[in-house]
Amino acid sequence: MLDFEFRSPLRHSRFVSFTPLMILWMLVPVAASPAESEAGESHLQNIRQLTFGGENAEAYWSPDGTELIMQSTREPYGCDQIFRLPVTSPGEPALLSTGTGRTTCAYFTSDGQRVLYSSTHLAGPECPPVPDHSQGYVWPLYDSMDIFSAKTDGSDLRRITSSGSYDAEATVCSKDGSIIFTSTRDGDLDLYSMDADGGNVQRLTDTPGYDGGAFFSADCTQIVWRASRPTPGEELEDYQRLLTQNLVRPSKLEIFVANADGSDARQVTNLGAASFAPFFFPSGDRILFSTNHGDPTGREFDIWAVNVDGSDLEQITFSPGFDGFPMFSPDGSKLAFASNRNQKKPGETNVFVADWVVDPSQ
After folding, report:
1. Is residue 263 part of a domain?
2. What does the longest C-alpha to C-alpha distance in the chain come to?
3. Is residue 19 part of a domain?
4. CA nearest 203: which of 227, 186, 225, 218?
5. pTM here?
6. At a CB cut-off of 8 Å and minimum separation 6, what does 280 contact?
7. Number of domains within the chain
8. 21 in any annotated domain
9. Residue 119 lies inside a defined structural domain of this protein
């Protein structure tokens, strides 16, 4: 959950062959539409498309499983804003953010009464500038990005971080409402935890490299995230140089897990690819994530599954282009994800929901 801004060729702070976010579009309200699965997608049944055009990403479930909260760009907004999207009776998404600045990484609180998201709107109403990519494919780390809390209609907006650095990628423990997020407040991209009101901030990682996009397991005893571990020398120097410019290069990320307090951190994947958006299975012993593993061009992203010990790697989606941001519904019966499939125009990314088949052989 960085600010995967799905830019071409990769999109959070989010990866892929997408058109630039600055393109404006109108999302026409349409009821959920059936979508065909690709050959090999045996874990997915009854796929339904919930959005129809533009770029929609990071759609995460409400605690009661009736709606999603997502980021998207649409007229009259020039960059990502946060919307609620009904699932059981699809209709027009409802704007939750202010409509100013750039937003990312929205999530429901554990009681479903409020939402979190990150935004730059206090620095000004305009969309902040994007990198010119003269240094290759890089992501911006806006130091004006703070984490906010609001009611589910967008009212009662409260700022809960004010470090003067990049604070984003916040997700919530379903048990006690505590928050895990990514920040540059100590000079690196690290994971932190805090209480629901922003108090009691604790640093969870301290190894040089990008640590971000973390999620709790269902029982909140574990966390899973994406991380880079640049090797000492030229690779680490490049990472640190970009960081001084509020930039990060996301071309090589692996999946890590740890206890919820950051202890016993261990690397799960070793694919040498861009792996991100991990999410625990309800059991906590397996992980879904998106990666361009196996594609020499780096443009083909699919959802994969792997055990927490790194064994039993399994490809879940096979649609051309991008599939990512998988999240199980609270009861584990459904999967929400973003995909290029069924696009009407090149670069479109839409939100889909499918029934999850635990054992395809049955």
Report:
1. yes
2. 55
3. no
4. 186
5. 0.90
6. 215, 216, 217, 218, 222, 224, 286, 287, 288
7. 1
8. no
9. yes
